[in-house]
TrEMBL record:
The lineage of its organism: Bacteria, Pseudomonadati, Bacteroidota, Cytophagia, Cytophagales. Residues 9-130 form the Peptidase C39 domain. PROSITE patterns: PEPTIDASE_C39. This is Cysteine peptidase family C39 domain-containing protein. It comes from the Bacteria.
Amino acid sequence: MKKFLHFSQHDRLDCGPACLKMISRFYGQDYSYTFLKKMCRMGEGGTTLSGLQTAADAIGLQAFSTRLTMEILERERPVPLMAHWHGRHYVVVYNIKGGRIFVADPAKETNVVYTKSEFEKGWICLNELGTEYGIVTLFSPTPEFYASQRSTADHRR
């Protein structure tokens, strides 16, 4: 498996921009951490899914947040994706294979591999009907994402 590039968050509230940096780098663009943080509309509590989607749109990544069950996540494997972790943090899931989930957590120094049950403990929530699900944001680069290299060179690195 190709090594997935890991970026650490700069402070305790910067997990969203760090994850977006990892995802944009995966697709071939390298935006500065400062630029992505600004685009995420950071508040006192960090950023929201809406802020992350706004930032993704600004750089040409189509973002879609949804709820998934573990079964669907394992079957479809729409990686890389951003997972809402413990209801207050964001991580990037970059591979799912053999009952293991490969995660780039910007709060840790390196990438982490979880068993299915370990991952579920950090990701799974219950809805009002008792259904288990996790929140994810899926990304897809648009033609603008690749064209933006020329127009936003000052926002690199």
